[in-house]
Design brief:
The protein has 219 residues and is of the alpha/beta class. The chain contains six helices and nine strands, in the order αβαβαβαβαβββββα.
Length: 219
């Protein structure tokens, strides 16, 4: 559902600005399925970056094509030499990076920065998270930030009521405020797969079935 939201926002922004092509950075792309999903946007190419060597190898094997590329990098080093991208998205990464909120302000982007973070998560809930109790005030120095909120079911809200448990907060930043909260419905439904191979480029589906079949035989 997070990647579906990112996809909708990028598509809205490209239409409003009459952009025909764009380069997207998926920072912390993991195994690459989200990057492949964003690459379905017409005119978009996606670069996925992750610190996990095994994840990048998987992404290269099953999701690399003419519209996607993947490579290994540590953001603490990559931020010093990274090029400028049209759009940067990052899902579930800020909270894993030391001083992540300040570090992400240094990312180089032309159109939009789209990130998410656990909302007001207490220390100890996730042992791998380095940031805690993050809310809107932590992003007050970001450029024209807009906030959206996602519950545990993947449903996104503009202004959640008190009886809804919010799991994730999205931060949308723009140099020019082209995308406004009024561009979104009050409630955005959770993503649902349209078919059994929603995650896969069809050219990769055979490889995926072969890989899974061999893994099953091994076990």
């Amino acid at each position: 559902s997070s990647y579906e939201l990112f996809r909708q926002i990028i598509e809205k922004h490209m239409r409003k600005n009459n952009k025909k092509t764009a380069h997207v950075l998926d920072l912390g792309c993991g195994a690459g399925w989200g990057s492949a999903y964003l690459a379905h946007i017409k005119g978009v190419k996606v670069t996925g970056v992750d610190i996990g060597v095994a994840a990048i190898e998987y992404a290269k094997t099953y999701h690399k094509n003419s519209k996607t590329n993947f490579f290994y990098a540590d953001i603490l080093e990559y931020i010093n030499y990274m090029p400028e991208y049209d759009y940067i998205i990052s899902r579930n990464m800020v909270e894993h990076v030391p001083d992540g909120i300040n570090l992400f302000k240094q990312l180089k982007w032309k159109e939009m920065l789209l990130v998410d973070v656990p909302y007001k998560e207490s220390k100890g809930v996730n042992l791998y998270h380095l940031l805690h109790m993050v809310d809107e005030t932590h992003f007050k120095d970001y450029e024209n930030p807009l906030f959206l909120y996602q519950d545990l079911e993947g449903i996104v809200y503009k202004t959640p009521s008190q009886d809804i448990y919010i799991n994730i907060m999205f931060i949308l930043c723009q140099h020019k405020p082209t995308i406004l909260l009024n561009d979104f419905s009050s409630i955005i439904p959770a993503w649902k797969p349209q078919n059994d191979y929603e995650y896969y480029d069809q050219s990769q589906a055979g490889k995926a079935r072969w890989f899974l079949g061999n893994r099953l035989r091994v076990h």
